[in-house]
Structures are given as structure tokens and as C-alpha cells.
Amino acid sequence: PTFAVMCLIRTVVLEDLSEKLPNLSEKLVNRLIGLALAAGKAVLPVVVDDSPEGHLPPEERESDKTDDELYLASQKYLLNSWMTIRESILLMVGLVEKYPSPSENSQRNISCNQAQEILNYMFHNQISLVHRGAFELSSNAMNRFIQVFDRKHSNCEVCDDKLMNLTENVFTRLIKTTP
What we know:
7 helices
């Protein structure tokens, strides 16, 4: 399961190593953010499905499994998928929270481009997720990320503009869908 690996990485990097290595290299942070984004994007098709409880990869659907076995397999995919999204977001939030931003330190561990990529990913989750559990986890993590992001990147006009544009986009979508 991907979420277990993501949880292990998050625990090791953000809890076990954070005291021993107060500054991670830019290259390592870039790779961790890339890994978290890739993991979240890989499972996104499951949780954006209109019926995620019934989502199965084609090779599973074409197997000789009973209906009960297929149901259990679909539940495993669903649980793994939304927990992977949760762990990937928590890893990204933790990296932004624990390690310096460009405005606080000359070593650029979290760049504006990375922060914007994370925001875009989270925003896409918010407008795409159908599964209530995944949406709730993603919403809570996005709120936390935005709070940390705003605090850590408050002196950056590019980041402020990006956050403002995403916020306006959310409001625009809400207004269009409100009767």
C-alpha cells in the first residue's frame, strides 16, 4: 500500500530526522515534494470516480474473483487511495512547516514554484474529489497548508498573488453552483 510508505517517509523525515537534520538539502526537499505529488496524483482517479467504492483496475475486474472478493478489493483500493492523498498532503504541509522558506533563509528549501505546484494540486483535489472521506481529509490538510503557506510566504508577492487567484477561483465556482 502506497499510504504506508508515504506515512513512513513522513514520520522519518518530519519527526525522526527533523531534530538531527534541521536543514534538508534543496534537492531532497524537491524529491520529497515530487514523490508526494506523484503518489497523490497516481491514486486520484480512484477518489474522483463517481462510485469510488466500486472502482477496480481492469486486471482486477477481469479476474475470476467472487463478488465478495471484488468488493473487498475495491474497498482496499479506496482506502489506500484516500489515505495516500492524506499522507502526501501531510508530507508536503510538514515540509513547508518545518523547513525554511525563501524569505526566511537564503537556502531555498521550498521555492515559490513548489509551493504553487502544491497549491494547484490541493485546489484540483478540492474541485475533483467525490469521496467524502478523501475530500474531508484533503480540505483539512489544505486549510493547514494555506495557514502555514501564508505565514511562511507572506513576504512573497508571487505566492500572495497565486493564493489570491486560487481563492477567487473557489469563490467564483461557489457562486456559479449556488442556486
